[in-house]
Amino acid sequence: ASTCSRCGPGYKTPLDAMKGPREEIVYLPCIYRNTDIQKPDYLATVDVNPQSPNFCKVIHRLPMPNLKDELHHSGWNACSSCYDDPSKRRNRLILPSLISSRIYVVDVGTDPRAPRLHKVHLSKPSVINCKSCLYRNALIVMAYPFIYVIGNWEQPGEAAPFGYDFWYQPRHNVMISTEWGAPKALGNGFNPADVRAGHYGQRLHVWDWTTHKRIQILDLGEEGAIPLEIRFLHNPAAAEGFVGCALQSTVFRFYKTPKGNWAAEKVIHIPGKKVKGWALPEMPGLITDILISLDDRFLYFSNWLHGDIRQYDITDRRNPRMVGQVFLAGSILKDGPVKVLEDKELDSQPAPRIIKGKRVQGGPQMLQLSLDGKRLYVTTSLYSAWDKQFYPDLVKEGSVMMQIDVDTDKGGLKLNENFLVDFGAEPDGPALAHELRYPGGDCTSDIWL
């Protein structure tokens, strides 16, 4: 997806990326762990070109060589940070496994429509972004171009107690990482007692990008419990961004202060709903995935339990303003077992979402935005152990991929009723589809220098 023949991968600037070609295929990991199907997880390639005879179909499946990996998030061997280096190619998708100790390197360069396995590594990753990957409490460096693990990224003795996502801003010589929880706590489901026992995180770790030293810890407090996805603004000169905190359904803005250190402030809070017929008397929204449009105008996130996706205008960074919302299933549907007793936002419980005759199970979860910002893709699986606990019908019937049409002028979200990829209809049985990636790079995996 180069814009010139002499350049490296990606695009010169985020605004150039917005003018890139429309997405034609999407890669997603599909998970069988915690289902009744004894098959390996696989990488699905989906055709999303409306002119194609295979529109909305899985056109290729690459099974992993092992069972129960729990593929989760992925990353690239190179991104737009290598734009000026013609020796680099974005031709390997790095697929870490959350539960097993494997990292799969997938060749998507030889035939983008039919990826093939290139290599398997043993390590313990969670999220990979460009050339490094972060496991819950250790950062692993992978060397380009041969891709092999060369050791821990952070300095000895400085590993964070938990890890999850990270984002770096080279112009400010900084990387910031988040915390999910202890593997033993989250491995088989969510127990609120584990939060009280300190097995889940609530801090951001600020690292010096050059020396790999930890320079600051930002404690977000209880309101910032389980900070998952972190997003700097795409503008490489910007020294601020947003992080979604799952448990209390808050979004914090983090920023560099005039003194040169880092701070964070809460800018969005989704109120919980008082309910009966559910696991707890109050149901949080559970903010899971968040992303920022390439022009840094809009922030999107999903409330996996309440069942909605929201769009915020973030031109005033300290005061995000909700401009779009769409409900896509969730736990408070009017024909479900949960009765909402008190709701600070809605007058009534939302109706179930049926697309092309298929009832959507689970809640909106992983997001990916088209480069031009006009189409938001969404899948419904969070993580197989939590899927099984909160949405058993999702595990039985498989997840779906949907597309939301975005108003990029005034803001607004509308479900595309003609788009559905049904992973309940997979050849080996219903699968749990997770994160979405485009071959040429996307909103959540590109970093600019």
UniProtKB/TrEMBL annotation:
**How is this protein positioned relative to the membrane?**
Peripheral membrane protein
Question: Which keywords annotate this record?
Answer: Acetylation, Cytoplasm, Membrane, Nucleus, Oxidoreductase, Protein transport, Selenium, Transport
| Reaction it catalyzes | methanethiol + O2 + H2O = hydrogen sulfide + formaldehyde + H2O2 + H(+)
Single GO MF descriptor: selenium binding
Q: Where in the cell is it found?
A: Nucleus; Cytoplasm, Cytosol; Membrane
Q: Which Pfam families match?
A: SBP56
Q: Does the keyword ATP-binding apply?
A: no
Coiled-coil intervals in this record? none
Q: Hey, which pathway is this one from?
A: Organosulfur degradation
Primary subcellular site in the record, as a coarse category: nucleus
Family affiliation: Belongs to the selenium-binding protein family.
PANTHER family recorded: METHANETHIOL OXIDASE
What's the name of the protein? Answer: Methanethiol oxidase
Q: What is the lineage of its organism?
A: Eukaryota, Metazoa, Chordata, Craniata, Vertebrata
